[in-house]
Design a protein that fits this description.
Elements lengths: L13 H12 L4 H12 L9 H13 L4 E5 L5 H8 L6 E6 L2 H13 L6 E5 L2 H4 L9 E4 L6 H10 L6 E4 L16 H15 L3 E10 L2 E10 L3
Parallel strand pairs: 1-2, 1-4, 2-3, 4-5
Antiparallel strand pairs: 5-7, 6-7
Helix pairs in contact: 2-5, 3-4, 7-8
C-alpha cells in the first residue's frame, strides 16, 4: 500500500472541498437547482449524485461521444438532467425509475428543464423495462437498487456495443464492498457485480473511490472491448 506524501485531510473538509470545486467547475444552473428544490419539497431521498459527479458523467459522455445514453435509476432526474445537457443535438437518454412518486417528480424536473424531447422516462421495474429497449447504448449509468446490479450488468452487456462505457454508482459504500461476510444485500449485490466485471474478458474496468459531500463512496467504470 502506498502512503501518500501529501497531507490527507479528514472528513470534515470533504463537503467543503466539494462545494469549492463545484462552484468553480460544476455550478448548478437554474434547472438543476429547481430539481433539487422540487425533490426536497416532495420528500425524495437526497442521494442524487453531487454536482461534480454529474459533471463527471457529462464529461464521460463527451469523451466517449455518447449519443444514446441509458440510466438505470432516475430518482428525481438530477443526474438525468446533467447528462441530457451534455448530449449532442441528436442525442437521447432513456431512464428507468421504479418508484412512481420519484418518477412523477423526475418528470416535472425534466419538463421544467425543457428536456422532455431528449429524455424517455420509463416507470417500472428496470428488469421488466430493459428487455424492451433497443440496443446499443453508448453509455450506461447503473444507479438503482444495488441488489440487482448483477442483473443490470447482464442487461447492460446485452444493450452494449464495443466502446460502450458502463458506470456503476455507489460501488464502495464506505468501504463495505470489501467485506466478504457482509449480510447487507446491497453489498452482496455490489460484490457480485464487481466479481462479474473482473471475470468478463469483454470488459476493461477500474474503480475510483470518492470522498465529498456524499461521504465515502465510489464508481466502477468499465468499457466494453468486444462482444
Ligand atoms: C443510496 C443510493 C444511491 O444511489 C446513492 O447514490 C447513495 C445512497 C442508498 O440507497 O442508500
Ligand atoms: Mg447513486
Amino acid at each position: 500500500m502506498r502512503i501518500p506524501d501529501y497531507p490527507s485531510q479528514g472528513s470534515d473538509k470533504w463537503a467543503e472541498v466539494d462545494a469549492w470545486f463545484s462552484e468553480k467547475l460544476a455550478p448548478e444552473d437554474s434547472d438543476l437547482k429547481y430539481a433539487l428544490a422540487n425533490n426536497a419539497d416532495q420528500g425524495l431521498p437526497t442521494h442524487d449524485v453531487s454536482s461534480l459527479q454529474g459533471k463527471m458523467l457529462a464529461i464521460f459522455m463527451q469523451m466517449s461521444r455518447a449519443v444514446r445514453v441509458l440510466e438505470i435509476g432516475t430518482l428525481g432526474g438530477y443526474s438525468t438532467i446533467w447528462m441530457a445537457k451534455a448530449l449532442p443535438p441528436h442525442g437521447s437518454i432513456t431512464t428507468i425509475e421504479f418508484n412512481e412518486h420519484h418518477a412523477e417528480v423526475a418528470s416535472q424536473n425534466i419538463n421544467n428543464a425543457g428536456l422532455a424531447e431528449r429524455v424517455t422516462l420509463h416507470r417500472g421495474a428496470a428488469l421488466e423495462v430493459l428487455p424492451t429497449l433497443d440496443a446499443p447504448f453508448d453509455l450506461i449509468f447503473i444507479d438503482a437498487d444495488k441488489v440487482n446490479n448483477p442483473h443490470y450488468l447482464e442487461w447492460a452487456m446485452r444493450l452494449s456495443k464495443p466502446g460502450t462505457v458502463i458506470v456503476g454508482d455507489n460501488s464502495v459504500r464506505g468501504g463495505n464492498v470489501i467485506d466478504p461476510s457482509s449480510e447487507d444485500p446491497n453489498v452482496i449485490g455490489l460484490r457480485k457485480f464487481v466479481g462479474m466485471i473482473s471475470e468478463d474478458e469483454r470488459l476493461e474496468a477500474t474503480a475510483v473511490q470518492t470522498v465529498g459531500e456524499k461521504g465515502w463512496d465510489g464508481f466502477v467504470i468499465a468499457i466494453v472491448k468486444t462482444l
